Amino acid sequence: MNTTPKSWESIEEDTMKDLYLCFSLDERFYAFEVRYLTEILALPAITTIPGTAPFLKGVINIRGKIIPIMDVRLRFDMPFLPYHERTCVLLVELDGNPLGLAVDKVNDVVKIPPENIDLAPKIGESKSSRFIYATGRVGDTVKILINLDRLLTQEENLMLQELPGT
Question: What global pTM score does this model have?
Answer without folding.
Answer: 0.84
